[in-house]
Every structure is written in structure tokens, then in C-alpha cells.
Design goal:
Two copies of one chain form a homodimer.
Chain A (H helix, E strand, L loop, with lengths): L3 E4 L10 E4 L2 H9 L6 H21 L4 H15 L7 H16 L6 H31 L7 E4 L14 H10 L5 E5 L6 H13 L3 E4 L4 H6 L5 E4 L3 E3 L4 E4 L2 H11 L3 E4 L5 E2 L16 H4 L12 E2 L4 E4 L6 E4 L2 E3 L4 H8 L6
Parallel strand pairs in A: 3-4, 3-6, 4-5, 6-9, 7-10, 9-13
Antiparallel strand pairs in A: 1-2, 7-8, 8-12, 13-14
Helix pairs in contact in A: 1-2, 2-3, 2-4, 2-5, 3-4, 4-5, 5-6
Chain lengths: 344, 344
């Protein structure tokens, strides 16, 4: 059945290392510790993770009943890894539906094959999604644009090209003369470590700044558009994304700079309307107090470390999905784009 | 004549070390490398630095003419250490006026004594200034306030209690139940390393956050006032302060939170009106790419690293000085407070 391998993103940019996964706990740990991160990539990794969780049962030629139970437990366990990105639950729901449809199969092998097929389908759909978002997003950028992005939304966060970064890379591929400003994205520096690395690989002109410098760069007239990814978007368009996104959106509004979100329809959670209903993951204080192995705050200080914030729809100019651009951002236009067969 | 000793702030909070200074170059390097930092503290250190620069001449019993020349050169040299904080130039101008008044003295020793007296006067005035700013500033905070601050404005940045931090510490001394949120302040983490350390020493309830989290904390209703220091304030009230201040001011306005600046009148530069005339120091890229000894961005990336930004007067609710509170912030009210004997 092959083997799941993921690039360990915590080691970038100084080391490029592939991690092989032999059991479910390894996949769970990789998501918790951000070895794999980015809403779409978490969904894909979790889908493959369910298959990894069944490999031992397949080797043992376990009964169908036991295999179904193990696969279901794998889904439930992986769902506890991170609370905010909805793509995780979306992917695991798809895997669960495959399990439900295959309770009558003859063997663990057959169930495993069905699950692997679904994981590959999710993976393939993600590739197409990246391509489509890239095309729709690139159309928003004009020649000479300075574009600000926050966190990492490239191939590392997805299967290919990414979401917000796909729009940037596609514009660059089209020959548009753009310049990217990347927020370093404290505390874990996904912008400095990952986005700058990806932009460098693709040869896109780019400048690294600290998160706190973005408003100043806007004031200097160097930013014509902001584009970011999303971890969960509500029915009215309120968007949970990496902490710091909300501040960027406020600064963009203050400077009259359009603020775009790029995300696949799998990132929408139409079961909730208001952004404050999105659960926000709190992470450990050491991410802030022990930056990069050295203690940078006194022992024993109190720390607040939310991994995400919510940008209300009012601050979002448009949301770029693989099906098209949602604009203006409100419940009517979100539902019209996201609900299949909905009439506009 | 004693010896100049300064706390090496680059080693905080893990190590508390006093640095002795034997020559002018050491003082210059200490200001450039932020071993001593904070607009008022830079002014005080530079004033004493002129005396340090004369010590060798005093030991050699150099001629008055040579001593005057050495002291003047010391002033000019120290003025090249950092471009933005005006207190540096203000203090050196005072030292220069002492030199000018003492070109006829009998010896290097006498000139040195006059210069030391002026440096001590600047130092003493700073202590009284901190106390007065603390009293005026504390009056702005009510029981139960959450107060956000950015960078470090405490005793480390001044001679005592500080400017913005003086207001916080005085309110705490008055028994007011306040809670401070301190931005860590990238890239050099003065908030995490210095402000949290000072607040901890004084027992003020406080929470450390990343700079990008401030808007979210405001959105949660946990901030009732923002107070920051300043490195230079123009005649209309535009304020240069640590990079990130401008973004905090925009977020405060968005949330209807008052935004206060606390600074002595020596921080005002009435020779310029518009904030964009303030020279902004650009610092080296390694401060961002090699955070605390570990490389956190790919080799060879382009970096933008302005040390300060300018917050326009329109975003500032009031400026707290040692003479009283400037409100509203405009040229008329700034001049009325700062120009001695000006009529309101």
C-alpha cells in the first residue's frame, strides 16, 4: 500500500527532511506539533492518516468488523488533533462516509483500498482546487502590485501551489510584475520560514517583514492588495485564520487596501453564522517565551497565545474559492457559492 | 570622577550585568547595539558619555583648548549613534552649550566638572520628569482597566519608573486594580525581555502577547487604554516610536480604545511639523532573519527593518508630558505645552 511521507515543516528553512509514518499516533503528533500544517494539508494528512491507522489490521488480515471499528476510531482520534481548521473535520467526515458504505466488504484489505482511494481523491481535488484558486486570485492582481500575505498558504499548506500563495504564484507565472511582502508570522514564523522559502524557490520578488511592520509598509504606499488563507469561514463570511490576520485586515481597511481571503469551499462551515462561534485553539506559552530555543521572557510570566483570530466579513473585500470569487462577502453570496446547486 | 556603568539590556531577562565604560567608543557602541536604549536613557547615557570622552584628557592634564576640542568631537561622534530619538540630540546640545560657556576655564578638570554637573542635572531632571508623567498618566486609568503597551518605556529606558510605564506603575502604586498586556515587540523583543521583567519586579499583573495579538485582545474587550512612549514628536503631535506602534494605534481607533503617548517635553522636536520629516533608522536584516542565534528565514532573502514608525496625531487621544496632558493633540496645544512661557 506504500507509505505516507510528509515534509517536516518545523525544520524549514534550515533542513528539508521527509518523515515516514508507520502508525496513527505519529500522524496525530505531526498535526499537533505542526510538522504538517495549513488547513487543506491537515485535511489531506488526516485522510491518509486513517489509512495508516488501518495498516496493521491489514497486515494481520483482521476481520471486517474489527477493521471498521479501527478505522472509525482512527477518524475520531485524528479529529482531536487541532480544533480550528474545519478541513480536518471535512476530510474525516468523507473518510467516515466511506467506512459507513463499506461495512459489508469482505476484508480489511478491501476497506483499506476504499479509504486509500478516498484519501487520494481528496488529495487530487486539492490539486485542482489550488489551480482554480490560483487562476481566480491572480485576476485580482494588476501589473506592479505590492501584495502582502500573512502566515503560509503555499504548497506546504496544501498539495500544490496553495491557496493565497497560488494566486500570487499564478500571477507571477503569468508574467505580472508583482512584489510580495511576507509577514514573518509570530510565534512560529511560518511566513519567515515557509512562505519566504517557497517564494524563493519560485523566484518571486519578495521582502520579509515583522508582523508589526505591515501597517507602516501600507502607509508607504507599497501594498496594493492583501491576500491570506483561512482555517474556517462561517456562513456570513467571518474568517478564522492565523493570529495576526485580523490586525492586517484592520490596517488594510484604514489604508483603503483590498483584503482578500483565498480558501477552498471545504474551508466553509455553514453550520455556524457568527465568527465568535469558531473554537480558537490556545497553544502553549513556550512558543512565545522560548523563541527558537532561547528564553526571551522572564520565567513564570503569564502568556496569552491564541493560534487564530477571526476577521469579520465586513473587513473582507472578497473570498476567492475554487468555484469563483465571493463578492460582496455576506451570507447570501457565501451560500450561493458554497452550497452545491444553490441558485445565485 | 567615578565611572559610568550601565545595565546591558541585551542580556535581559536571563542575565543582569553592569557594563563599565572606559572610553567614548564603548558608549557609542552601547547605544548603537541597544545595550542602553529608550529615548530618555540614550540622552542621559550620551551626556555622561561626553564626560567619559574627556577622562583621558583630564588624566593627562591636557590644555583647555584641546579639552574643548575633544569634548566637542565627543558630542558630534555620539550624535551619530542613532538617528531617530531626539532626546539624544537634545542632551548633546545641552552639553555643547556647557562647552561653549566654558572655553575660558583654566583646565580640563574644570571643564570635566562642568560637563559632569550638566549630565547629572539631565539625569536628575529625568527622575523628576518620570515622577510627574507617572502622576499625570495614572489619572487616565480607571479601576479595572486593561492597559496595552508596546516596547519598553520603564526604568530601563529612563532613569527611573519610565514614561508610559511610569503611568502604569504609579496607577499600581495608587492601588488601582489594573492588568497590563505587553506586546513582545519584534524584532528585538523589548516588551518580552524588558517590560515583562520590570512589571514582574514591581508585581503588576501582566500578560505577554505577540504584537499580532493586540487587535484580537482589544476585540475581546480586554483593553481599555493603550499607552506607549515616543522617540520624537513633531510640532503637530505626529509621534515616532518603536515599529508596531502605528498598527496598535490603528487597531485602538478601530475598537474605540483611547491611545496615549507618554514622553517628556525633551522628546518634542518643534523644528518639524510633519511626521514624515522624522528620519527613520533602518536596522540590519539579521535582527529578523536570525532571531536569537537561530536562523529563521532562508539565506539571502530581502528584508525591510525600520526601527520606528510614525503615528499621526489624528490617532493619538492625548500626550502625557511632565508638565501636563496635551489634549486634543494638534500644533496649537503642543506648542502651548512645550514652548516655555507660551500662552495657552
Amino acid at each position: 500500500m506504500g507509505q505516507l511521507e510528509l515534509l517536516d515543516q518545523t525544520l524549514l528553512p534550515t533542513s528539508v527532511e521527509m518523515l515516514p509514518f508507520h502508525d496513527l499516533h505519529g500522524v496525530h503528533e505531526a498535526i499537533v506539533s505542526l510538522r504538517v500544517r495549513g488547513a487543506p494539508a491537515i485535511g489531506i494528512a488526516a485522510a491518509y492518516g486513517v489509512v495508516v491507522g488501518l495498516q496493521d489490521a491489514i497486515r494481520r488480515r483482521a476481520s471486517t468488523k474489527e477493521s471498521v471499528q479501527l478505522a472509525t476510531e482512527a477518524c475520531d482520534y485524528l479529529a482531536t488533533s487541532r480544533p480550528t481548521a474545519v478541513n480536518l473535520f471535512w476530510a474525516l467526515d468523507r473518510m467516515k462516509r466511506v467506512i459507513d458504505r463499506n461495512t459489508g466488504v469482505a476484508s480489511a484489505v478491501e476497506l483499506g483500498n476504499q479509504l486509500l482511494r478516498e484519501a487520494r481523491l481528496i488529495h487530487d481535488e486539492d490539486r485542482r482546487m489550488c489551480h482554480a484558486i490560483g487562476e481566480y486570485g491572480a485576476a485580482l492582481f494588476e501589473e506592479g502590485f505590492g501584495i502582502l500575505t500573512h502566515c503560509n498558504t503555499g504548497g506546504l499548506a496544501t498539495s500544490e501551489y496553495g491557496t493565497a500563495l497560488a494566486a500570487i504564484l499564478t500571477a507571477h507565472d503569468q508574467g505580472k510584475d508583482i512584489h510580495v511582502f511576507a509577514d514573518e508570522t509570530r510565534p512560529l514564523l511560518q511566513g519567515a520560514r515557509l512562505t519566504m522559502w517557497e517564494l524563493q524557490q519560485y523566484g518571486v520578488p519578495c521582502t520579509l517583514i515583522c508582523d508589526s511592520m505591515a501597517p507602516q509598509v501600507m502607509r508607504e504606499g507599497r501594498i496594493q492588495a492583501v491576500i491570506v488563507g483561512a482555517d474556517r469561514i462561517t456562513a456570513r463570511g467571518d474568517t478564522a485564520n492565523k493570529i495576526g490576520t485580523y490586525g492586517v485586515a484592520i490596517a488594510a481597511k484604514h489604508h483603503g487596501v483590498p483584503f482578500y481571503v483565498a480558501a477552498p469551499t471545504s474551508t466553509f462551515d455553514l453550520s455556524i453564522v457568527e465568527g465568535n462561534e469558531i473554537p480558537i485553539e490556545q497553544r502553549k506559552s513556550e512558543e512565545i517565551t522560548c523563541a527558537f530555543g532561547r528564553r526571551t521572557a522572564p520565567e513564570g510570566v503569564s502568556v496569552y497565545n491564541p493560534a487564530f483570530d477571526v476577521t469579520p466579513a465586513e473587513l473582507i473585500t472578497a473570498i476567492v474559492t475554487e468555484r469563483g470569487v465571493i463578492h460582496p462577502v455576506d451570507e447570501q453570496h457565501v451560500r450561493a457559492m458554497v452550497v452545491r446547486n444553490a441558485s445565485v
